[in-house]
Amino acid sequence: MELMERLMPQYQFSEKHQLLTPAQPGALLDAVLQPGVSEDPWARRFIQLR
Hints:
0% strand, mainly alpha
C-alpha cells in the first residue's frame, strides 16, 4: 500500500453543484471573462488565507 493511500482519508460520498439559468451561453461566457472578485486585493488575500 502506498503512503498516500494510508494517510489520505477514504471518502464515501461526493457532491455535485449546478445552477440552472435562463441566460444564453454566450452571455454567461462574457460574464465569466469580466474582472471579478479575484481582481479585488482584499478578496485575493482572503482566498490565499483560505
